[in-house]
Amino acid sequence: MERRTYFADIIVPLSLPRLFTYRVPELLSPFVKPLQRVIVPFGKRKRYTGIIHSVHENPPKGYEARYIDEILEISPVINPSHLKFWEWMAEYYMCSLGEVMQAALPAGLKLSSETVFKALKKLEDVDTETLAIENISFLKLLNK
After folding, report:
1. Using H for helix, E for strand and C for coil, what is the string for the chain?
2. Radius of gyration of the chain (CA)
3. For each of the chain's 144 residues, which pLDDT tens digit applies?
């Protein structure tokens, strides 16, 4: 059986005039769909949340496509009418789809390169008292 290689055009939340094409890892290819959120590398050390604009089998011209790191949800976070509206906005306001995405999505749905993840070396490094208080406060909010 012939193995197909898929590529995805990704909207990244930056002021760039075009979409960037990323290679879909073979393990993710059955799950990748347009309008899903994904994490993609950008530059040497940066990672961004992007939205898949389209999926195809055409490699990019002029550069080697990097791999998508991760799919964040199986279901798309926007629908086709949102994308159509974003495309209209980008054309009308003469800006990029990335700029429209940056303005349209809530901050909680966007990972940017400034996001810092800190790995703990030991369980003792976790402040369980603060964690317990924050969880109790969150549970109280849910029960209201």
Report:
1. CCCCCCEEEEECCCCCCCCEEEECCCCCCCCCCCCCEEEEEECCCEEEEEEEEEEECCCCCCCCCCECCEECCCCCCCCHHHHHHHHHHHHHCCCCHHHHHHHHCCHHHCCCCCCCCCCCCCHHHCCHHHHHHHHHHHHHHHHC
2. 19
3. 678 899 999 999 999 989 999 999 999 999 999 999 999 999 888 899 999 999 999 999 998 999 999 999 888 989 999 999 999 999 999 999 999 999 998 877 766 554 445 555 555 555 555 555 444 444 444 444
Domains defined for the chain, CATH in brackets? 7-115 (3.40.1440.60)
Lookup: tokens for 112 = 């940017």
97-132 CB burial, b ≥16 within 10 A, e <16: bbbbbbebbeeebbbeeeeeeeeeeeeeeeeeeeee
The residue assigned the tokens 């490094």 is: 125
